Amino acid sequence: MTISAIYDDNHEVIRHISVQNIITERKFRDLQIVEQNSVLKKLAWSNSHLVRKPIASILSLVDLGKDMENTEELKEIHHLINRCSVELDNITKEVSAQIDSRNLEGFIEL
Question: Residue 108: enclosing H or E segment and its boundaries?
């Protein structure tokens, strides 16, 4: 709230006026931004750490298996790639659940 004096021609205060701003909506929006930033930080961390590990493993296993001819070794590489894929899928589902649980649908603008 801001209170200001109103003066007459002789510079005498003749009355006061107050202006009041309702900031509830702005405060709510500020809290939404803080929440969004928290989610985005977690997503960035997930992308740089959690997601990167299985992707790097898959890339390495594919590279390793390119020149293999032994069926048993290829089956083992296939098994390991599958495990990494499942791990990556679980991470993706967890990130999605985190976003959904915070009810940010429509708030994060892409």
Answer: none
